[in-house]
Amino acid sequence: MGDARKTARRRAVPWAVVGLWLAALVLLGPLAGKFAGIQQNRAVDYLPDSADSTQVARIQDRLPGGESTDLVLVYHREGGLTDADRRTAAEQVAEVRGAYDLAGEPRGVPSKDGSTLMYPVSSTQPGQDEEARDAFVDGVRDIAESGGGLSVEVGGPGALNTDMNKVFGTLDATLLFATLGVVTVLLVLIYRSPFLWLVPLVVAGVAPAMAMAAGYGLHELFDVTVTGQSGGVMTVLVLGAGTDYALLIVSRYREELRRHERPYDAMRTALRGCGPAILASSGTVAAGLLCLLAADLNSSSGMGPVGVVGVLAALAAMTTLLPAVLVLLGRRVFWPMIPAFGSEPKARRSVFAAMGTSATRRPVTVLAGGAVLLGALALGTLNLSGSIKQEDSFTERPESITAMRTLAREYPERSSRPVTVIAPEDRAEAVVERARAAEGVAEVVPGRSGAGWTEIAVFTTAAPETEAETRTIEALRTGLDPAGAYVGGPSAQQIDLAESEARDRKVIVPLVLGAVFVILVGLLRSLVAPLLLLAAVVAVWGAALGIGGRVFELGFGGTDPGLGLLSFVFLVALGVDYGIFLMHRMREESVRGAEPEAAALTALRTTGGVIASAGVVLAATFAVLTTLPMVGLVELGFVIAVGVLLDTFLVRTYLVTTASVLLRRRMWWPGRLSRVPERTAPPEERKPQAANAP
């Protein structure tokens, strides 16, 4: 009777799990479709509430007409504009004015050499609605057409926001399909089976839908800021981490199928064996991401919970749905290399055992050489240039960026992008006079008034996002603060972003290290092993950032302000994963009585293949970010991919292994394993045994 119940349970549980996931997809699928619509991609959406530029944007919303959409129509002809060109410009601007409700009469400003004419255009008609703003910009672009050698470009902050929205609007789908394609190729190569690769791929495709639905819920329930950047990173994280977990589970399941007759029993044992390491792995990533809640920047603090729901979705899918599907399919899913019950794996030399053995022959030399190499690579961080300008933030320049460059070239004596000052209405005249007297100011133009505030446009003599303009903005903030005025606008937003990022690094880096350290201590029951793993991943981060510094110097005009912090959080949290898989197996071998060197080599041999596969998959998924048109995402994807590969093939294989051999039992101090006396093992026990590749 008991056997019959067990058999019925073995059959019912997998089907119940699959049924629950199908029901969840049906219920939550519509919410996942709304995820792209909640993303906020304006620079001001990234900023903290306390920033001056945030206050400016909020007060502008309360002025008559609400938030304005500011454009600049740029008419240019090499060799000089003709009278016909000027008539064309005037006619097109008049058509724009007839089609839309503009703030004031647009006034043309010619360049000194007569080759360019710019018309600043502003409208409050679209308001805060993103689609209405984008439609307004596209409508103006349809009217302002080039022709006959006359180039017409529509730029300004409103056009830049529209171009960014178009990029981020296609980001989720592009990333999802590109990453699934990369994962498909790698799984086919890893498994060399016509069927097996499809199972983790299908499950991996389910997890992003659950993550997007959860992300939408976070935004609606807790007003979590979701940006195009955090949404893109979440997609990559779900697929990368989820595939890693799948590789570990499938490898252990294949091993257990040789020891258990029924797939259900084999999977249960496999989950018990690798489950703690997978849980600790996902826990470190989640803990590291949750530390971002302490960030001052809304974009960074929002990325924390958004990333966490992604990791949890991957964990849930790979530890419930994947095992259920594999059990239902049985052993035949591994065809043509089906692991038969009672069979022995084909004996062959493990590449990682050979690498580990070579490293342990001269552990001090290998460890010192590796440390010197990582230090030399980290010197590349000195090549990291300053914060990237908005005009350099796209890999393929849209029209708003080309317009910005034309204006900077043709109007060197005057910025075409104003600094926005918001002053109390009763002090507006005094603020205007103070602003005109400030060094570096070319023109001051009072604008709308209402709700107790007045909007003032300040044009500087320096080009946007230059050191000279930064000095002028800082001088304005210092001089106008006693009058209760706020200084904002696109350039001021970039300054506030950089300052907030610097503050966040000082706060979040120690929080991440502390959180990950606590988890490692609980898993490994040691203080020395967690410190070793943390030192290793910090060294990897420095080396990867250094390599990035040398590469970015050649291709980009600067680095994203958030690159250092976000790459640190992801590389520490994800890099520790592979150390966890290695150390957890090393500890298992030590508990069974293996001596330190034998435990290290056995752990490396048994986990090396699957962790190498997982590292390649994770690096490849983040490398997908380098194909996108946003420089910030390209830089982040590159640094994380390089860091994961360094950790997988250099640090974990050689440095962590040699360090553990040198530390011997002290690795587990002050735990019980550190007090177990060592014995002198015969030479044959120190040699790595042949094992099947996972």
Brief digest:
The protein has 22 helices and 8 strands. The protein is of the alpha+beta class and 694 residues long.
Report on the architecture of this protein.
With 694 residues, this protein is an alpha+beta fold. It has helices at 2-32, 43-46, 52-62, 83-99, 130-143, 157-169, 171-191, 198-222, 228-257, 263-290, 298-329, 351-361, 363-378, 399-410, 428-437, 467-480, 490-524, 528-555, 563-591, 596-623, 631-663, 683-686, and strands at residues 69-76, 109-110, 116-123, 151-155, 419-424, 441-450, 453-460, 486-488. It has a four-stranded antiparallel β-sheet with strand order 2-3-1-4, sandwiched between helices. It has a four-stranded antiparallel β-sheet with strand order 6-7-5-8, sandwiched between helices. A hairpin with a 2-residue loop joins β6 and β7 (453-460). The longest helix has 35 residues, at 490-524. Residues 681-694 have low confidence and may be disordered.
List keywords for this structure.
64% helix; 694 residues; alpha+beta; 8 strands; four-stranded antiparallel beta sheet
Break the fold down into its secondary structure elements and pairings.
Blueprint: H1 2-32, H2 43-46, H3 52-62, E1 69-76, H4 83-99, E2 109-110, E3 116-123, H5 130-143, E4 151-155, H6 157-169, H7 171-191, H8 198-222, H9 228-257, H10 263-290, H11 298-329, H12 351-361, H13 363-378, H14 399-410, E5 419-424, H15 428-437, E6 441-450, E7 453-460, H16 467-480, E8 486-488, H17 490-524, H18 528-555, H19 563-591, H20 596-623, H21 631-663, H22 683-686
Antiparallel strand pairs: 1-3, 1-4, 2-3, 5-7, 5-8, 6-7
Helix pairs in contact: 1-8, 1-11, 5-6, 7-8, 7-9, 7-20, 8-9, 8-11, 9-10, 9-11, 9-20, 10-11, 10-17, 10-19, 12-20, 12-21, 13-18, 13-21, 17-18, 17-19, 18-19, 18-21, 19-20, 19-21, 20-21
